[in-house]
Each structure stands twice: as C-alpha cells, then as structure tokens.
Amino acid sequence: MWVILTMASAVHWFRKGLRLHDNPALLDAVQNPTTTYVLPVFCLDPIFLRPETVGVNRMNFLLECLQDLDQQLRKLHSRLFVLRGNPLEQLPVFFRKYHTRLLTFEFDTEPYAKQRDTQVRRLCAELGIEVRTRATHTLYDPEDIRRELGDRPTPLTYKSFYAFVTERLGQPMSALDAPAPASGFQTPDVDLDTYTVPSLSELEAYQGLEVETPFRGGETEALRRMENFLRERADEVRSFAKPATSPTAWPVASTTQLSPYFKFGCLSPRLFVERVRSLRPLQQPPVSLIGQIWWREFFTYVAYVTPHFHQMQGNPICRQIPWREAADDARYRAWEEARTGYPWIDACMVQLRQEGWLHHLARHAVACFLTRGDLWVSWERGRETFDRLLVDADYSLNNANWLWLSSSAFFHQYYRVYSPISFPQKYDPNGEYVRHFLPVLKEMPSKYIYTPWLAPVVVQKKAKCIIGEDYPHPIVDHAVVMRENMRRMREALDAGAPQRVPKRPRRDANEASSSSSSS
DNA sequence: TGTCGGGTTGTTCCA
DNA sequence: ATGGAACAACCCGAC
C-alpha cells in the first residue's frame, strides 16, 4: 500500500466508449511517461440509475458492457474500477487515494455530459491533474467540423453535411488497436474486493424488474456480431439500402442491429467503416451501411451545436407546433401501453418494451402515429418513451429522429403520413409480426389482421378476439384525423413562420415588399 | 430576398 | 402485378 501511495497514476474514465479497441484516450493513459499506474474507472452516476429514465433492458446491457470491459482488462493484468455516486464527488476521492496526475476520457457532446465534464475539468485544475480527451464516439471530432464551418450556417441536410465534411476533412482517422499485453499497462493489485462491477440485483431501484432484451452487452459481443454479419451476410452488406429493409423481419432482423453497441461505444464507427469497406462493390450513402454511420455523424453534430435540441421551446431549428396539452395524456398512455387499437402500432410498442429495439421504419411508424399523423401528441413525450425503453437510446439520434418524424426539423413534407394499415401490409401481408407480439390476434384472419374492428362479429368470435373486450377499438379514425392534422400543421406553419412567403396569394411585388418592410 | 431542384424510407388509384 | 401520376404543396441549399 505504501508503494502505491507514492506512485503517480493515470486514470482513464470510461463513460461511453466502452471498448479497448480504437480508444486513443485509453492509450494516452497507458503510454503516459510520467505516471506509473493506469486505473480504468467507470462511475455509476445516480442520475442514470432510475428505471423511469433508463429502462431495465438498457441498464442490464450497460452492466454487461462493464463486465466485459473488466474481463478484457484483466487479460491485460488490469481491471475496471467501478465507482458509485456522483462523479464530481467520487472522482476526487479516488484521485487523492491513487495520486492521480493525468485524467483521460472520450469527448462527449451531450448537454449533461458537457456540463459535468466542464466541472470535472475545473476540479482537476484545482487538484493539479492534467486532462486529455479524444473525440472517438464519431468518425470526426465535432470541433474540427465546427472550425471548418466557421461562419457558415450549420448544414441542415444530410447531403450538404456529407459533402462539406468529406471535402474539408477527408478520410477519418483510422481505427487503433487495443493496447497490447506488453504495452506497459500496469494497474495496482489493490482493493480487489471493492470497486467491482455490480449485478443488476445489487441495484436497488431495479430489483424485481425482468430483463427481456435479447441484446447482450459488451465489446466482445459487438465485435463478434459485426464480424458475423460481414461474413454471413456479405451480399446484404454490399447491396444494403436502408429504406428497402423490412421493419417486420423477426426474429432475424433485416439490419445489423449494431445500434446498441454504437450507442455505448462498444464498437468504434471508424473500425466499422473500415471493415465494411473491405467488401466491394458497395451501395453508396445515404442509403448504404456506411451511409447510416453518416446519419449518426450528421445528427450528433447538429445536436451538439443546436441549443435546446431536445425540446421545441428555444430550439432554433424546431417548428413551433401547438401539440395537444400535456395534461391530456390518455392518448399518450394508450400509445405507450400498446392500446391504440391499431395492431401494427401496438405490436411495435410491445417489441420496443420487450426487446428494447425496433427497426428504423417501425420507429417511423409509431413516431408519426403519436405526433403529426394521428394523435397530435408532442414529439418530446415520444422521445421520453424511446429514451427509457430503447437499449440503443442515444440523445442526439433519438431527438433528431423525433424532430424528423414530427416534421419539426430536417423533414418537412408533413403531408406524407404513414398509414398504420397499408404500410405494414406491403411488408407482412399475413401479419406474422403482429401475431407474435400481440398473441391475442393470433387467430385473426389475414384479411383483418391490421383492421380487426372491420371483422364481422362471427369472425371475431371464431378468432377468440372480440374487439372492445379482448382488444381495443381504434383510438382514432386514421383517415379522418390525418386530414385534420394536416390542416393543423398548415395553420401552425402560417402562424409560426412570419418570414415565410405564402405561395397562394402572391398578388404583386409592391404588396409583398410593403408588408415585409418592418425594419 | 428570386427561383428551382431535390429531399434515405407515403398513400391511393389507375393503367 | 408494377409503375406512374395525383394528392397538396413543405423547406434547404445552390445558383
């Protein structure tokens, strides 16, 4: 113990980036010449230890990531130190105990992380600890993009973002290897029985909650899944076109399902891009597999530089739309609890709750239904549900996609509405997906699987599913509310966009100029 | 403060 | 059966 107390240490703080490969901040700690020991740390922040915020499926996934990380580190004769509590309180105690001189971590763009990390930096300055960070959650450092953009406005379309970044920044950095066993990775052999990775049952708030997700956390699993997909489904990788994949494929999904691993950084996007590029010829962005990583890049960047990105109020790129009052939440609850009476929507919501994952187009369908399509409930509420239930819930991507689907930002063709009936019909005419996730409809004839309320009573009886008793009546009439909502959207745009020039009137130039000469 | 082409992933109807 | 137009008409970015 005396020895340890006199030797300086470097701490690598894992938050996301839960991997050993392509982790330059970890390598900075390992290779730092003025410190003897490396202490890999994760801090279980109580702000995330609540099932109302982080659902049981994602919490379990996180703990599995930490277990895997610990095991991988032990192969390097190191280990993971798991601190419990607010990092601003726990880290300094740890720093003093182990004479920390250097702190490294992966740069994080999220608002909570930004303010937390600012405080940690301040604290380190007081303690005389050097801080080094690396931006490795995305292909590029968002600060590099911001610097290149200079005074230009933030690109709000995929194409303009992609064109600008590829032209100005060229290829992303290549992925780095994990630290080798002989890399000088030294971790003191102390506190063996403390700072261990907890099991789910040790987290009080999660006791008694059942884990249903099929996703197993960790870098090892991420790499295995990626290599497996590249090997077994190479043709699909080459021809991959996201809009052409099926949202009803189950149990073998039509996509890679790597999103939970990207969310926690179990898998480096740079490594993924390099590995996919080894297969040729490839489909091109935006629909290609690499194109998907660019969507992540685009949304992460815009979320980073946009104030109040997670809400309508004060968000400069968000349409101001008078969504239904928050107090009137019967519709929201029906949606979240899979009781809308539209089998396609409800089946999706059951899969979301059980597995913590939905195909991208299924997310589109339920998001459109909750907001501009049918229920006219604020996208912020749907965002909260996704944030709690998705194993892959990511601040930037989740908010961006809700902005998109509610046609609040990025996407503006609000008259394109997903039908909860004909949309799933083209992928799954027999409704196998619905029958699996809503067993109450298992016996319903295919003709009525998406519209069971239209089935004659004898058919309902024969299927052992009486609408109104065993399965609810539709909460709204899609054909009717869709029209109403389009009109509402039109009104909201007229009211909220004074700079907008109405197309219809356009009488003459004089009138237009006199009405707009306000300053 | 114009114009126009295009926007990862709509639906319905008709030929 | 598949492909194209009507539906109603948005905003962004490039010129």
From TrEMBL:
Cellular-component GO terms for this entry: cytoplasm; nucleus
The protein's name: 6-4 photolyase
Biological source species: Cyanidioschyzon merolae (strain NIES-3377 / 10D) (Unicellular red alga)
Keywords recorded for this protein, A-Z: FAD, Flavoprotein
GO biological process: circadian regulation of gene expression; entrainment of circadian clock by photoperiod
Annotated binding of FAD, by residue: 255-259, 292-299, 392-394
One Pfam family in the UniProt entry: DNA_photolyase
UniProt GO MF annotations: deoxyribodipyrimidine photo-lyase activity; DNA binding; FAD binding
